[in-house]
């Protein structure tokens, strides 16, 4: 799994090579069966178990503070 620091390094390389204005998309799965546009900026997020293949979000009550374990796009 890629980290935020690794992602930033790769994005900087893309920008330095003149690709900074390209739109961002994501693949639905590892096989590239479907692609979608990224509309939202990254944000902190909390999932049950990062080791699982299918990630389940943790929904907190209004008064609970999130302690993130990942960053989400879209």
Write up this protein.
- This protein has one helix spanning 4-19; strands at 25-27, 35-37, 43-45, 70-72.
- β1 and β2 form a beta hairpin.
- The longest helix has 16 residues, at 4-19.
- A two-stranded antiparallel ribbon has the order 1-2.
- It is built from 1 helix and 4 strands.
- The chain has a domain at 24-74.
- It is of the alpha+beta class and 74 residues long.
- It is globular.
Summary?
This protein has 74 residues and is α+β, with helices and mostly antiparallel strands. It contains one helix and four strands, in the order H-E-E-E-E.
Order of helices and strands: HEEEE
Radius of gyration, rounded?
15 Å
Largest sheet: 2 strands, antiparallel
Low-pLDDT runs of 5+ residues are none
* Number of discrete helical segments: 1
Placed side by side, the strands forming the largest sheet appear as 1-2
Secondary structure: helix percent: 10-25%
What is the number of strand segments?
A: 4
